[in-house]
Amino acid sequence: MGIDVKAVEALGGEVLDWRFKAVPASAHGMTVDEAGDARLPLDDFGTPLLTLDASALEHNVRAMARWTRDAGLLLAPHGKTTMAPALWRRQLDAGAWAITVANLPQLRVARAFGVRRVLYASTLLDPAGLAWLSGELDGDPDFEFLSWVDSVRSVELMDEALRAARGQRQVDVCVELGGPDGRTGVRDDGDAREVAAAVRAARTLRLAGIGGYEGALAHDASERSRASVGAYLRRLGNLHERLEYEVDEPVLTVGGSAYFDQVADELGGAGGRVVLRSGAYIVHDDGFYQGISPFARGTDGERLRSAMHAWGRVISRPEPGLALLDVGKRDVPFDEGLPAPQLVRGKGPLEGGRITALNDQHAFLRDTSAEVGDVVRLGLSHPCTALDKWTMIPVVDDAGADHPVVVDYIRTFF
To answer: Keyword annotations for this protein (predicted)?
Structure first.
């Protein structure tokens, strides 16, 4: 088991109260487990509200686990998407090799819940953070950690901080390869080899692989974007073969949730461990990922299903053709597209309607048949900026039912 099951199960004992904006007053004083067993109707919950769909979560975890296994890839889901240890546990139970994190606070959450193997998809340079990490490694021989570096200077800073911490275990690192106009990562292959040599010369570090992120180089599924991604992956694979590692099975890690089919095509036969870091798949969406997912483009595999929805109530119709919902930027994502109205709870599909703008607490719903008092279900885009707005998320049995029932609650730690 790759996570502390007792720590995850202990979340079921947390008492629900006013701290959790999704939780109705009727559930205050209950524990999470008690509220789940009570199967409260969603009609009892106020708005605004974000929910997850139980069957969609289960389907997505199963579908991605099967696909990566069939493709010969390992999966280290990016934990930043949900920051929910209960969902990490489901992914690990389904065969995930590790959990990925992006920064020190996320790493501390992972360790608080006993995640055994963590891929840190960034460069950790904070001296205090490195000293803490060194203590974690020395204190838990089963803890495996893998970080990134993209410059000789970052190697020097890590080595300096780790020597000061006087840790006994080396820290495994990957050389990160980037691309033009991308994010972090060495741009030149020659520089990458220099970084690798610096790692091998640092007694506190061990060269354990190579990594990168192809999603920073493209943002759609056009032929041009896919060609750019393919060229980057081939370059990464070629560099992987030329570096001299200090471990028996070096890691080659890439992959967001948009181009994992190309990762399998280009790197599936590479030596060592090829690790995919897709994270958004477990929640998926009705926007960006719905359009760009390889499963939506015809790649073999079960289509993913959006597991997240927002619910907002029509509180005003101040002029013809305009309705205002009590849901806004504080409640739903908007960086990858505005929410899309789907249905009115208890009445069925919404006739017409489009969200044209969001304020902090309001959504502008135009050309709609929704009436004051109606509760509208919204499809969302980009789970990474949806779940971070909610600390306790109700899980419904069926978000498409006339009157869904809440069967569980997911605690997040953003």
So the answer is: Lyase
